[in-house]
Specification:
The complex is a heterodimer of chains A (617) and B (500). Chain A has 617 residues and is mostly helical. Chain A has a domain of 43 residues. In chain A, 68% of the residues lie in helices and 5% in strands. Chain A has 22 helices and eight strands. In chain A, strands 1-2 form a two-stranded antiparallel ribbon. In chain A, a hairpin with a 3-residue loop joins strand 1 and strand 2. In chain A, helix 14 packs parallel to helix 16. Chain A is globular. Chain A starts with 5 loop residues before the first helix and ends with a helix. Chain B is an all-alpha fold and 500 residues long. Chain B has a domain of 212 residues. Chain B has 19 helices and two strands. Chain B has a two-stranded antiparallel ribbon. In chain B, helix 1 packs antiparallel against helix 4, helix 11 packs parallel to helix 16 and helix 13 packs antiparallel against helix 15. Chain B starts with 6 loop residues before the first helix and ends in a 5-residue tail after the last helix. The model of chain B has no long low-confidence stretch (mean pLDDT 89). The chains are: A mainly alpha (617), B mainly alpha (500). At the A-B interface, strand 1, helix 5, helix 6, helix 21 and helix 22 of A face helix 6, helix 8, helix 11, helix 13 and helix 15 of B.
């Protein structure tokens, strides 16, 4: 068997085994899966050393005309993504062993995880757009099943998720077919489509929709927050936080760098950057007002995609490097954050921030890893999130996109503000009275969190390592490393002064918001007296969720309205389209009144019209 | 095999009558008779796939005077679809129909319907086609009202009236054609029509046929009977009606007559494409709004037949290239086969659910994946196939149809086909969310898996859904190739009159 087939076939076959293992023995299923993925991971490591490897087999020809080639191509970009897919797969399966213990979840959970790995490997390795689409849709399907294994309300969340991703897959199908019919090939490495004409633009936009929906950017983001609460946290860490980002941004980068020719500063490039910047700002604002940890994290998962799209879409080499590095960094810290949420859920049984507090002493490992990941996502040096955001900022400066730069930096400040709230509500703050006997989670769950936190530090302090290994070869000769570890493009219009100042301003803004809301926080260990009564201490405990009530309540009435609408999902395309479709369906249903004479008249009128057209044409 | 060809109608018609007599003596005999009869037919139909085209002269009388039976790629394909699904539906009926009275009458009507459909497919004579069409239709009217409840009878009545209008239209059309050409033998008629050309009388015949067969195929605006009739019938009959009957009586007849007798025509092509697109959209949108399991499936059938119609319409356009035509026909035929498989699967699933829970109201169901894992897994596979997700069979057929549309330059129709694919996905997600997943209602905590004889056909059909998708290359060469060659080869059909 060809070397490149192993990452696809081995998880696919291994995934069949758990189907036959009953619920009670799911630990066995997990260990089998772990072994299979570990083997593939080692394989992926050795593949990473190879530079170029191709495999091609003609599957069949449709109607004797159109050949379908199952062609795989390994090069540094796909090898890098493949490596991290398997890495995350390994961590998630390990984590799930502990997380699912004692839960009533079927062993097929592991089947779906393994098949997801197999399909992801296929999507990354393939060089054929149609094969990519097939794997892409299979991924959507598997995510749907995984969400359906979750807790209460899973079926509605899964339905929403599948509908939105199904829509994006349909758009992709259109794009792929248009490319096939107009440019005569499906081979990604042979395509180089100009985006000057309408056909090119339609094809690009269609595929762009597919890429950003998977990555979870606005306006196709709402499936991520929708599935956040009922879905098992490891699944959230695995798919929306890690794999879907890797895959979505991988595809976006392929589109921008290989398949289409996008000029820097062109309308399409600006469109992408606008999508990116809007995603950063709006999603982080929604995150700011969430009360549920998982939901909050999911909005950040959306917000962070903005940086990647902003960077990759700009077409400026250093920003592309930043965007791609951010993709990797985000997968690491966001994975870590969701796993921490899982740990809290496992031990406390809830992720409602109002009901949590003071866990720092009880779950120290979770606390420290969450803190590191939170600082990374907020773009605080020296963690990895800072490095990649910094690169994106530099790119924006280089392209003179001040407004996008401000959006990116402001988004970063708000992220920090939001995580101040998380850290406070979860780990600091006052412990609610109900929380007793909380222990740290098992080592199998700790280990992935620790590893990810270490990577946050490693990729931040020694950013050269991942950049040179993984990212720079993708962009090619456009960028070089300078001695002090900073990436500089050959065009080299780098202005550290302004970016630094803006960063500091951003952090100050974050601190100011924090300080403002602290003023409203009361912290006391004494039972207080109101009107002669001693209040129950639980009633006066102020959880961190109240931090940013200022933002929603006081800022200004327009803003508040927007938040309320956002909460209800009025700005969610899913609801809008659903409403429009519903109205159309109502009209059609009203026409079908069940009366025979109505139906008969349709038949007679139909016949009359047909006869008229046919006879007197 | 050739000498046994008439048995495709003779066996079911004969057993239908014998069954009524024997079951007067032994009630159980009906089960065995129906099972053996449909089993033999299914076996014969599969064997027929590997027999080349021939014609059979009933009673040895030579055409154009004698009755002609025709076997070619198209009829073989249809025979497989009809008889295999019929066999599986009968297996399902063994247990399911015990909830109804008068099981022997059910079997007889069922076999009459199968015999009628087989007759429509194998005959090479237009009047014979009408007779068999009526046999199958009348049997189906009775079967729709088999439960004898108020709604079932109303549905059956509506179906009968509208079906009657369609049959009258078809009969008129045949009479017109007879007056124009002086023959009822289809290859002969095709030759005569080539001399006549498309005059106004023929144009009127086309209108009558598009209405008549279009109604049988439930194309919008002639579709209104279907959403009442298909849900009212017992589940295995719904599976037969939606899975097979609308195709054998509607789509197949349109294909045979438009391609082989009247010949491709650009105007007919655009009419059929328009009706196909309309059916796709209207059926799909209405399916979203349904709260009844079977009713949703029924509307979905209208939508899916739209795909077949639009692709056939495209292939009827003489102006497009041979390659695109081939693509369109492959897509249409494959989707026809696929729809037969997954729609009958889904209707049988709805039957299994109703058998165990007593309801098909989507609002009252939920969480059944834990209680009926096999049934629900097959239901999920069927839903995903029909929604066009890879690697299931529906993905390929929709892909090919959309490709053909885009390649021929019909960008809007292509986009509509993609959009309806998404709409299909949306309502099948709704179906799954309401039946498979979510919270199990208290009332169903004691629900068990459906009995073996009901699960078996479900599993076979689900395997077919996956198999036809993964083994598409094999399906294309072994099943579709002959049929699409046949459809594009009008001269070959006319030669059957002389040869065979």
């Amino acid at each position: 068997m060809h070397e490149l087939l192993y990452p696809i076939i081995v998880p696919a076959i291994a995934g069949i085994i758990p189907i036959f293992i009953p619920r009670k023995g799911k630990m066995v299923a997990g260990i089998i899966s772990l072994a299979a993925v570990a083997w593939v991971f080692v394989r992926a490591l050795s593949l990473f050393g190879l530079w170029e490897l191709a495999y091609n087999v003609r599957l069949f020809t449709i109607a004797g005309i159109y050949p379908i080639d199952f062609s795989l191509r390994l090069y540094h970009f796909s090898a890098f993504i493949l490596l991290f897919i398997m890495f995350f797969g390994l961590l998630i399966i390990l984590y799930s062993l502990g997380f699912l213990r004692g839960k009533d979840t079927s062993s097929t959970y592991y089947t779906f995880i393994l098949w997801t790995l197999s399909a992801s490997a296929g999507a990354v390795l393939t060089d054929n757009l149609l094969v990519l689409l097939v794997f892409w849709e299979i991924l959507t399907l598997l995510l749907y099943f995984l969400v359906n294994m979750g807790g209460e309300g899973h079926e509605k969340a899964a339905a929403k998720c599948f509908t939105i991703l199904g829509f994006s897959d349909a758009a992709m199908l259109l794009g792929v077919l248009l490319i096939w019919l107009n440019y005569g090939t499906l081979s990604m490495s042979q395509l180089s489509i100009a985006t000057g004409d309408t056909m090119g633009v339609i094809a690009f936009v269609a595929l762009f929709i597919g890429a950003i929906a998977k990555a979870g950017a606005m306006p196709l983001h709402s499936w991520v927050p929708a599935i956040a609460v009922p879905t098992h946290p490891p699944v959230m860490a695995f798919l929306p936080a890690a794999l879907d980002k890797l895959l979505g941004i991988y595809l976006l980068a392929r589109l921008v760098l290989d398949i289409f020719i996008i000029q820097t500063g062109s309308a399409l490039s600006l469109m992408m950057m606008t999508v990116g910047a809007a995603t950063i700002i709006f999603a982080v604002m929604m995150a700011l007002v969430q009360h549920n940890l998982k939901k909050l994290l999911s909005f950040h998962a959306v917000s962070q995609v903005g940086y990647m799209i902003l960077g990759v879409g700009s077409g400026i080499p250093i920003a592309i490097i930043g965007g791609l590095f951010h993709m990797l960094n985000n997968a690491i810290y966001k994975g870590g954050l969701f796993l921490a949420a899982g740990a809290v859920e496992k031990r406390v049984g809830t992720t409602e921030l109002d009901k949590l507090g003071g866990l720092a002493g009880l779950m120290p490992i979770t606390f420290v890893t969450t803190l590191i990941a939170a600082l990374s996502i907020s773009g605080v040096p020296p963690f990895n999130g800072f490095v990649s955001k910094w690169l994106v900022y530099q790119g924006m400066l280089e392209g003179n996109y001040m407004i996008f730069l401000v959006a990116a930096i402001f988004g970063s400040a708000l992220t920090l503000a939001s995580f101040v709230k998380v850290i406070h509500s979860l780990f600091l703050g006052r412990k609610p009275d109900g929380l007793k006997d909380i222990k740290e989670v098992d080592f199998s769950m700790q280990f992935p969190m620790i590893l990810l936190a270490l990577l946050c530090i490693l990729f931040g302090v020694m950013a050269r390592l991942p950049l040179e290994r993984f990212i720079l070869p993708i962009v090619g000769g456009g960028a070089v490393m300078t001695a002090n570890g900073v990436v500089e493009t050959t065009q080299g219009l780098w202005n550290p002064g302004l970016a630094t100042i803006l960063i500091i301003i951003g952090i100050i803004v974050g601190l100011v918001i924090y300080a403002l809301s602290r003023a409203r926080t009361t912290r006391t260990d004494e039972n207080i007296w109101i009107g002669g009564n001693i209040m129950d201490s639980e009633e006066i405990r102020i959880p961190g969720t109240h931090f940013y009530k200022t933002v929603t309540d006081d800022l200004n009435p327009v803003f508040t309205g927007a938040f309320r609408d956002g909460e209800k999902g009025a700005m969610d395309g899913y609801n809008i389209i659903g409403g429009l479709g519903g109205a159309l369906v109502k009209v059609l249903r009203a026409m079908h009144d069940g009366i025979l004479s109505t139906y008969l008249s349709w038949v007679v009128i139909g016949l009359g019209v047909l006869a008229f057209i046919l006879m007197f044409h | 095999m050739q000498q046994y060809y008439p048995l495709f109608t003779a066996i079911p018609l004969a057993i239908a009558f014998v069954n009524l007599l024997i079951t007067k003596i032994n009630k159980r005999a009906g089960d065995y008779l129906a099972l053996i009869a449909t089993g033999v037919l299914a076996y014969m139909s599969i064997k027929m796939l590997f027999v080349g085209p021939f014609s059979y002269h009933v009673g040895g009388h030579l055409p154009p005077w004698g009755i002609l039976l025709v076997s070619d790629g198209l009829s073989s394909l249809m025979l497989v679809v009809i008889n295999v699904i019929a066999f599986l539906s009968i297996i399902f009926s063994l247990k399911y129909m015990t909830t109804y009275t008068a099981k022997p009458k059910y079997y007889s009507l069922f076999l009459l319907m199968v015999g009628g459909m087989n007759g429509v497919v194998i005959t090479g004579d237009l009047f014979n086609l009408y007779v068999f069409l009526e046999i199958a239709s009348i049997a189906s009217y009775a079967l729709v009202g088999f439960g004898c409840e108020k709604e079932e009878l109303e549905a059956s009545f509506k179906y009968m009236i509208l079906g009657g209008v369609a049959s009258t239209g078809v009969l008129f059309g045949i009479a017109f054609l007879y007056s124009i050409t002086g023959t009822l033998n289809m290859p002969d008629m095709a030759m005569q029509l080539e001399l006549v050309g498309i005059n106004r009388a023929v144009a009127f015949v086309i209108a009558l046929f598009v209405m008549g067969f279009g109604l049988k195929a439930s194309s919008v605006p002639f579709h209104a009977w279907l959403p009442d009739a298909h849900p009212s019938a017992p589940a295995p009959i719904s599976a037969m009606l939606s899975g097979v009957l609308i195709k054998a009586l509607g789509v197949y007849t349109i294909m045979r007559i438009m391609f082989h007798v009247i010949g491709p025509n650009p105007l007919v092509s655009s009419i059929m494409m328009f009706l196909g697109a309309l059916s796709m959209v209207v059926g799909g949108l209405l399916a979203i709004g349904q709260e009844d399991f079977k009713r949703m499936l029924a509307y979905s059938s209208i939508s899916q037949i739209g795909y077949v119609m639009i692709a056939l319409g495209l292939a009827l356009n003489p102006g497009i290239g041979m390659m695109t035509k081939a693509l369109a026909i492959v897509g249409a035929l494959f989707h026809l086969v696929n729809h037969a498989v997954f729609k009958s699967l889904l209707f049988l699933c709805s039957g299994a659910v109703e058998y165990r829970t007593g309801t098909r109201d989507l609002g009252k169901l939920g969480g059944l994946i834990r209680k009926m894992p096999v049934t629900m897994t097959t239901c999920s596979i069927g839903s995903l196939s029909i929604a066009g997700l890879p690697p299931f069979n529906g993905f390929w057929s929709k892909l090919i149809i959309i490709m053909a549309l885009l390649r021929a330059g019909y960008m809007v129709y292509g986009a509509i086909a993609i959009l309806v694919g998404f709409i299909t996905l949306a309502y099948f997600i709704k179906l799954q969310a309401n039946v498979l997943f979510g919270k199990l209602p208290e009332a169903f905590s004691e629900v068990r898996e459906a009995p073996f004889s009901m699960v078996l056909p479900l599993v076979i059909l689900a395997i077919l859904c996956v198999g036809l998708g993964i083994a598409y290359p094999f399906v294309e060469t072994e099943m579709l190739r002959a049929a699409w060659d046949t459809l594009l080869d009008k001269a070959g059909f006319m030669n059957l009159l002389l040869g065979g």
